[in-house]
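Worked problem 6 (solution included).
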Amino acid sequence: MNIGKEIKKLVVENGSTLTYLAKCIETAKGKNYSVQNLSAKLKKGTINYNELVIILKELGYTIELKKSSIS
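Solution. The predicted structure is:
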């Protein structure tokens, strides 16, 4: 699974843009965050958890961690 491709897919499905999401991250973090930075992180798969949470929140999603039944 490629996280960058999955996020880009969600962006399109929800009618959003990477530019908008970069601005949301910038606002939440309180520091400069460009669309080029976001795009590079998605391409490299280096997006961090906090950025992922912000993106998913803006797209109307949450992250849920469940313990696997496989030991």
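Discussion: The chain has a mean pLDDT of 95.
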